[in-house]
Amino acid sequence: MGAPETDGQAERAVAALRRIQQAIAGAVRTPDGLIEHLLMALIAEGHVLIEDVPGVGKTTLARALARTVGLEFSRIQCTPDLLPGDITGVQIFDQSQNLFRFRPGPIFANLVLVDETNRASPKTQAALLEAMQERQVTVDAETHILPLPFMVIATQNPIEFEGTFPLPEAQLDRIAMLLRMGYPERSDEVRLLTEQGAGDPVSLLEPVASIDEIQEGIAVARALHVEPVVNEYAVSILQRTREDERLMLGASPRAGVVLMRVARARALLDGRLFVTPDDVKAVAVPVLAHRVLLASAVRTGDADAAGIIGELVARTPAPM
Predict the structure, then answer these.
(1) Domain with CATH 3.40.50.300 in the chain
(2) CA angle in degrees (0–180, nearest 5) for 301-312-254
(3) Which phi and psi angles does 125 have, rounded to 5°?
(4) What is the pTM of this model?
(5) Which fold has domain 3-223?
(6) Does the domain at residues 224-320 carry the CATH identifier 1.10.150.20?
(7) Among 28, 64, 87, 168, which is least packed by CB within 10 angstroms?
(8) Averaged in consecutive runs of 10 residues, what is the pLDDT profile of the chain (320 residues)?
């Protein structure tokens, strides 16, 4: 891939991402930076966990992203009786042909909303693991490839714990970013009531970018230049999470890989073909906070993982 072509591809990808961002912002009221983080995860080929109370617009946000890109969208409502086959699909016997045929489940879409993930049983949660990591599912020893691009937006309610199954660390490590929406600002909530009273703004959204443009953006982000000192800076942050006494489990090497993929996506979204330490610093908390475990001595205090990661990033000298 030559430099002039790379520049042209980057310009097209950035223009497409900005159109998507503008279209979603016009239909969904979100905190500053949330849409950008969602687009970073999409370009980084990562998955997102949105942890927040019901009714703040998690499903609406996922629908808006799917509609602005023309992605095939599906929604899975997790319950304790949900089976793995309900997600991946099952083999159905075709009497007319006297053979079994695979009937794909809702995981076979470009954008999959997995609502209240922690209400699914561990066995069903595990069925998501191969799909999220390998972009494929295996049913009755047959492997089926998922469509590309493929992204899971999982949600969970941090308030209700009865009848839930906390996601294990191995599965959390497959989540690129942990995001929170929170309640909207007063002015945004007033506008929300006005807009929702006239109908569903998301249902009026039309595609403003194509799947090909997203795939092009993914390819450009992979090829962005990263100086060795930026990689060293990222590793320094990871090592601090492993050495801090407040953390029982630090960030894994996989966390570093995802951190740099998201940093590349942020650089592209900013219109650059190179990654800076500021890109790493800006995405460190949403990428790393859910991948570490607090030590038992600090769990009962006011400390939280996001705050500790933010403090460690601030204390890590960035290369000039």
Answers:
(1) 3-223
(2) 105
(3) -60, -40
(4) 0.90
(5) Rossmann fold (3.40.50)
(6) no
(7) 168
(8) 63 94 89 92 95 81 93 93 92 84 93 92 87 88 91 86 79 90 79 73 90 94 94 97 92 95 96 95 96 82 86 92
